[in-house]
Amino acid sequence: MSQRIQVFRQIHFGPPACEDWSVNRKTAIQLQNAAKHFRVGGDTIKAVNDLSFEIKQGEIVALLGPNGSGKTTTLDMVLGFTTPTAGSVTTLGVKPQQAARAGRVSAVLQSGSLLPDLTVGETVRMIGALYSGGLDPKTALERAGISHLAKRKVSRCSGGEVQRLRFALALLPDPEVLILDEPTAGMDVNARQEFWKTMREEARAGRTVVFATHYLHEAEEFAQRIILIAAGQLIADDTVANIRSFAGLKTVSVRWADPDPLLLAKLPAVKSHTATEKKLVFKSDNADALVRFLLTETPATDVEVHTASLDEAFTNLTTKTP
Description:
By secondary structure, the protein is α/β, with parallel strands linked by helices. The protein folds into two domains: 3-104 and 175-245, P-loop containing nucleotide triphosphate hydrolases (Rossmann fold), CATH 3.40.50; 250-306. 34% of the residues lie in helices and 27% in strands. The chain has helices at residues 3-12, 71-79, 96-101, 120-128, 137-143, 159-171, 189-204, 216-222, 240-247, 261-266, 287-297, 310-318; strands at 27-40, 43-56, 60-64, 86-91, 105-108, 177-181, 208-212, 225-230, 233-238, 250-255, 270-275, 280-284, 301-306. Helix 7 links the parallel strand 6 and strand 7 (208-212). The longest helix has 16 residues, at 189-204.
C-alpha cells in the first residue's frame, strides 16, 4: 500500500466528519476487522481483509472501489449471503441473516431474474404475499414511481424500469436498511434524478441507504459519505469534499495576456502549468498562496480555483504507487 494511502488512513480512519451521527443515531451496519478469504485451487484469495467501518441509521453512504476491490463481497456479508472468515459483521445489531429473515434489510441487485410473462403489478403482488406486516403492493409501486406500469408485462419494461421494479420489491418488507448495487443501471438522466430524489425521502424517513456504483458523479452528488475500499481494505471514509481536497492538487486558472517568463518563474506552489488561447492553468499544492501572489503581484484576472474531482481522487487513492 502506498505511503499516500497509509497517511490518509492514519488521518481519516474512524468516524467520518460528515455529520454528528454518533449521539442520536443507532448503528445500522458494523464491520469489525471483517475478512473474507476464498480458496481457488491452491491459492487463498483475500477478497476482504481486516475491514472495519460503521454506518448509522438514516445515512446515505456510497461504497466505492475499483473492480475486484471487495465491494460485492462486503455487501454479500452485510446481506447475509456469505459469512466472514474472520472478524464480525452485524446488521441492525444482529447477524445479517437474522435481519434479512425479519425483513429489516433488503436489496436492489443488478442480477436476479424476474418472470417475464407477469405484469409489473402481478410481480409485486406475488412477492408481497410472502410478507406479513409489510407495505401494501400499491404503496410499494407508488413509492418506486411505477404505478403507471402496473399492467405492463415485465418483458416489455426497459432496463431502468426493471430496476425500479426491483426497488419496489425491495420495499415490500418495509426494511430499515436498503442495499443498492448499481441501482440506476439502465436509467436515463431524468430517471436517475427521480430515483435519487426518492432515496433522499427514504433516508429522511429514517431508512439507511448504502449503494455501490461506478457512476462517481452519483456518489459525489447524492452520498452524504463515501467509504472507499481497494484490495479488500479501507482506503478512505469521509465526506466527498474531504476526500477530494486530500487526494489531488488544486487547479487555478487565470486570464493573463503575454505573461512575463521571469514572473511566471516566481509563482509559489506551482507544480505544473499549461496555456490555452484564453487562460493559464496551474496545478498547485497551496492554492491560497498562489492566488494571493497572482492577485497582488501580477496582472492576472478572472482567477478560478477548482478542487480535484472525485474521479481524480478515486484514481489517486486506489492506485498503488511504488
